[in-house]
């Protein structure tokens, strides 16, 4: 049984190398095999001395009793899974040979998608793969791990994001719409291991430092893929026009990312405008800080990404037009995030620390029609 399993892994590695140049046999075998031999035998063969090793306490392990007939049925079920896996790998290899003879770009892209589907189905029920994904040991160069991550993301996080973007009117106040294809996670230095939930109301001192951004693409992308990140505030009071204007708080372009390199590293990119900490003025409405992630693409059929050179006048903080910017530089929105801030006790210290001035204090005017007092006094 285990010999057949190793054959499947080798077959995967040889097929995956044609789809992703970075996934070799060693990487594929390591991420698709449980490294702990005790745990591996427990998962695949149900072998243990004192109960399942995944149980933390000895008392829990001793108290476990396998369902009647499980040890007899599981090996037969695993054989069915392996046969199905081998069939999908064989189909993927057949399509890979067809891909070498295809010249049209659209046809090639269609075949690549079919190959990806077969690679996912080949390992969708693999106990070792599911275990490694559960303990976060998966290699995102491999299609099955990206598929599992995307499935989990779409089941909750993506729905939550879109609900917040729409109810807070980030769409369409900043960009007209979004077809989310990448998971965007955000946290601020000092908030340890705390990813910010979209739409969360934060203190100004929490968001004073430049955020840490993680961008996870689920589609297979080249290692040299480039991205642009913009953070805008569409709720800045515009006293001249008695309205609101959009302020650019951060702009970074030519960010290199890949399926396994998720974090935004400013040192490897072009920081067009430095990070401006949120500093809402007193009595102004709650401000939305909208994070937009764009994929830099090109119409050139021989390349998938391109660097962009941005004109200085296009990244002025005041009256920033994010739609014009995205259209001018051919940016494709793939992900977003949002948090909110309002004037609080920490705002003045943030203003003082970063030299942002004293700020304005807006008066609150009661809305409604004033009725004339019968005595002639309003």
TrEMBL record:
> Gene3D superfamilies, alphabetically?
1.20.58.1180, PEBP-like
SUPFAM superfamilies in the record, alphabetically?
Answer: PEBP-like (SSF49777)
GO cellular component: a single term: mitochondrion
| Coiled coil (UniProt feature) | none
InterPro entries hit by this protein: PEBP, PEBP-like_sf, PEBP_euk
Q: Which UniProt keywords apply?
A: Mitochondrion
Q: According to its UniProt record, where is this protein mainly located?
A: mitochondrion
List localization entries. Mitochondrion
Q: Which family does it belong to?
A: Belongs to the phosphatidylethanolamine-binding protein family. Mitochondrion-specific ribosomal protein mL38 subfamily.
Q: What is this protein called?
A: Large ribosomal subunit protein mL38
